[in-house]
Each structure stands twice: as structure tokens, then as C-alpha cells.
Amino acid sequence: MPMIQCENVSFCYDTENIDEKNAAVKNINFSVERGSFVAILGRNGSGKSTLAKLLNGILVPNSGRVLVEGMDTAEDENLIPIRKKVGMVFQNPDNQLVSNIVEEDIAFGPENLGIDPAEIRKRVDRALEIVNMTAFKKHAPHKLSGGQKQRVAIAGILAMKPECILFDESTSMLDPQGRAEIMQTIRKLNREENITVVIITHFMNEAAMADRVVVMDQGSIVRDGTPREIFSQVSFLHSIGLDVPQVTELLHLLSEDPALSGAVSFPEGVMDEEEAAEWIVKLFKARKNGCTAI
Amino acid sequence: MLKDVTLGQYFPGNSFFHRLDPRIKIILMLLFVVVTFFAANLVSFAYLVVLLGVMIAVSRLRLGVLLRGLKPIMVIAIFTAFINIFWTKGEALLVQFGFIHIYAEGLWRALFMVVRIVSLVLGTSVLLSYTTTPMELTDALESLLSPLKKIRVPVHEFAMMMSLALRFVPTLVEETEKIINAQKARGADFESGNVLQRAKALIPVLIPLFVSAFRRATELATAMECRCYTGGGGRTRMNQLKLHAKDVAGLLVSLFILTAVFAFNQIPLPFGVL
Fold it and tell me: What residues of chain A, 154 to 183, have a C-beta less than 8 Å from chain B?
């Protein structure tokens, strides 16, 4: 059974006239496998955040259903078990912290679940360790940097021992350093703690870190594949208002350049700087030797 | 200006007051407030000032922090002193200048009022807000008011609301500063004009602040739901309140120290009746 499964899910914010036209997400069929790292990509208004909110029952579909390990999000009695399994980290770190003390904030989730105090203590310490914030456990969140606050928010979810965490544009309010900290933490959660990760983002290099990229446009899923498969479709991504990672863009432009036409045939969808560098070196060598193809 | 707002801020530490059971602290704070209002002569006020000094020393809070916390109430203190000096009638006339009569009683009364206001603010900060985390405060209130649950008063919800409000004080202060700067960049003028004009100039600050506060509240509510918050029922606490023998001893000793004011009030002194 997949971790999360969407069956023909549609959702419309305007509950009075629900139809195709003003639906935020339309007829989505999609599932998240256990242990995977999925990125949902799309420009503003593409429905990606709405989809994320449907995945743990913050929103309930108008039609179709969302199943978390077989539990329907539309059933009220499933909400607590679902949220225990599927945590969510939001965009603004300030608006999700409830306490003036880091460790008390992290304890909030497990406290709500009615867990034994000694066990909460253990979970809080472990969560702090995972996000590397142990040194700040007695600090006030408003004195931390954006990236640190967001790591506290992640620890708050981790302390509930979720199986899956949704990140709803969790890096979009951070500076480059904070963004790197969070992405590193997310990757660690997926690889080392075996947590299923779904990130909602419009940063291409973040999406490139995932195992699977789902592209949304106008409320529908328009592409679904490995990052390489997705980013090889440069002109398609441009047509729906998305960019590709800079290296991918560079190689794409080089391969389309008439002056170099035929000289090289770069593979599409290269996302790794080193791989791109190798190809560019090959291009130089080929030109020097007067070869027309490599 | 807004940096001075220390209301609701907690300053980490390990002093006697930091470690004291928050329920005891709430009781002591209420008692302190009552005693401050009952202090009625020179000896009791002097005693109050000494007591406050000892409390500050024991709390090991930095004096600068405490003084900054006093700034916002300075206006009220000065205004009160002014009213008392000029409007109190007494027997010992000190200055007479036209329609202005200043009596010794007025001066004393002004001094007492200022001491009263300052000690109310300092006392409550030292005893409670600066030395108690909002979560402790919530727990303590919930625990003290829990008998009211029997008559269906939503005690947990009130306590939670209060602690969230305290949590968001620094965030909203920061936000207000940002909005003020943004409006200044658009040419807003907050520094000139009379009181009315200045108050009017604040409208473009307050409206965005309120809008953003509501947005924050919605997001916070969603985030809390995602962390399985369903109200007070079935919750446990990581740091549980346990009343130790030393807390009870502290309460009894403090009770004795505070109620001494009532004894001092009995000492007959001039300007004693307030």
C-alpha cells in the first residue's frame, strides 16, 4: 500500500459554485511510495500548495478521495492518526512555533498526543540532535535565524515520529544559507531516518535533489518522472512558466546554438555541475581537434 | 522605541525565582500587587522599595533590562506625579504662586504613587513575566484555575490563548518596526504634528499590522492542528509541575515578609493616610 494515495481528487476553494473552471486542483491521481523523496513543482497558482494541504487532511477534496495508509482524510476520526503519520512544515517559521522556548515548542506535538513525559523528553532530545539544534534548546525562537527557526519547526514535527513529512515551500522565506541548511536536513531525514518526504517548491535545484519530480500546472499534474526526465524537457517547462536548474539551461542553450550545431549532442537534463563541466571540456576538445561530433 | 517593549519576555536564568513553582509565583505576584496597594505610609513604602531591591538582586536579572521595561510606563508615572503634586490639598503649604498651591502632602502622595507604579511593574516582571516561560505560565494558570473546569469554564483554552499572545509579542513588535520603516520609506511622517495628527499617522501602521496578525493567527491555527492539537483533553506535559517542600516553604516565608506591610501601616506617621 502506498504511503499516500490520491484518487480522482478535485478541490475548489469557492464552495458555492464548484466546477472545473475555478477548481484549484482537478482530477488528481497520484501516489507517494513509502521512503521516497518527491518534489512537487509548479509556478504560483498551479495548485501545488493546495495539493499538499489535501495530503494530510487540512483540506478535504470536493470529489475523489485521499488515502493515507488506507485511511480516508474525509473521515473526522482519521484526522489525528493521519496527522501523526504525516507531518507538515510550513512556509513561515514564525507562524508555526507556539512557545518562547525551543524545547517546549518541540514538545508541543507529543504533548498533544498524550505521550508519557519521560518519553517526550527522549523524543525532544533526539529531534534536536537530528536537526542539529541541541545547543539552542533553551533559546527563544525569535532570536534565532530563519534557517534555525525552520529547523526547530522540523524538530517539532519529528518529535511526533511521523512516517512522512510534507514541506510546503519551507525554504522560500529563507536566505541562501538557511535554504541550504534545510535542504541538507531534509535529505538527511529521507536517507538516514527513512522518512518519506514530499517537498513543494518552485526552486529547481531543490526539486533536482528529489527521486521523483511531479510538475503541476493549472491544477493538474502535467509531468511525473525522475528529475532527469523532467529537466530534459526544457522548452516544455519554459512554456508553463518554470525554469530548469542553471547548468541544465546552459547545456540546453549550447546544444541549440547554431554556431555549434552538430558539433556536440549534449544529453538533456544534466543537473550536476561536474557532469556539465565534463561535457563542456569534451566540447572544447572536440572543437580543438576539428571533430564535428562527440 | 519599540525595542523597549519587554512585556511578556522571558529572560533565561537559574535564580531562585526562575526555579520557584510558577503557581507559587502567581500567588505571590497577586499578593505583591495587593500589598503595594495597601502600603500607606513612609515606612511601608521604604520597606517595599527595599523588598523590591532584594527581589531584583535575587532574580539576577540585568538592571538595564528592568529599566528598559519601565520606559513605557514613565509617561503614566510622570502624569500621576504631576496631578498629585498640583491637585492635592493639605495643611503644610510649601509653594504658593498665583493659583498654584503645592502642599507637602501632595509631594509625598506623588512620590508614593510613583513608587507604587514602578514597584507594580518591576514586582510583577521579576516575580512572573521575566522569570517564567510562557508554557510554565500557561500550566500554572491552568492548574490554579482548574477548579473552574467543573463549572464548564474553558480554562485550558484561556491559558493557551494567553501564552500564544505572549509568544507573539516579540514577533509583532518586529513586524511593527518593519511596517513603520516601510511607511516611512513611502514618505509617512510619524514625528511631527500634534498628538491627534500623530495618532492619525499610526493608522497606516495599525491596519497592515492587524491584517498580518489575522493571517498569522490562521496559519498558526493550521500548524497547531497539524501537530494534533485538539484542546486540553488528553494532553500530557513534558515538564510537569510538582510542588516541592521548598516551594511551600518559600510561599510561607514570602507571605510573612509581604504581610509585614500591614503591620508597618499601623505606625503613626505624618502624611500616612493615602
Answer: 156-157, 160
Where would I find the H helices in A203-272?
Answer: 204-207, 227-231, 234-239, 246-256
Q: Are residues A95 and A230 in the same domain?
A: yes
Containing structural domain, residue B233 = 156-238
Contact (Cβ atoms closer than 8 angstroms) between residue A195 and residue A117: no
pLDDT at residue A292 in the model: 54
Of B166, B220, B228, the CB nearest to A83: B228
Neighbour-count burial for B240-267, b at 16+ CB within 10 Å, e otherwise: eeeeeeebeebbeebeeebeebeebbee
For residues B233 and B273, membership in a common domain is answered with: no
**B197 and B98 in a common domain:** no
Considering the domain architecture, whether residues A167 and A270 belong to the same structural domain is answered as no
Is A294 a domain residue? no
CA angle B100, B101, B102 (to 5 degrees): 120
Binary contact (B170, A140; C-beta < 8 A): yes
> Range of A26's domain?
4-239
Query: Rounded to two decimals, what is the model's pTM?
Result: 0.78
Report how far residue A182's alpha carbon sits from residue B156's, in angstroms, rounded to the nearest whole number: 34
Residue A18 buriedness (CB in 10 A; 0-12 / 13-18 / 19+):
middle
H-only helix segments in chain B: 16-19, 22-38, 42-59, 63-87, 104-124, 134-145, 155-185, 195-201, 203-226, 245-265
What digits encode the pLDDT tens for the residues A181-230? Answer: 899 999 999 999 999 999 999 888 888 899 999 999 999 999 999 998 88
Interface test with B, best of A98, A150, A161 (most B CBs within 10 A): A98
**Kind of pairing between the strands at A164-168 and A86-89:** parallel
Each residue of B19-44: pLDDT tens digit? 888 899 999 999 999 989 888 888 88
- The SS3 assignment for A216 reads strand
- DSSP annotation of B129 reads I
A118: closest chain B residue by CA: B238
Residue B199 lies in a domain: yes
How would residue B1 be classed by pLDDT, with cut points 50, 70 and 90?
very low
Q: Are residues B110 and B234 in the same domain?
A: no
Residue A106 pLDDT level (bands cut at 50, 70, 90): very high
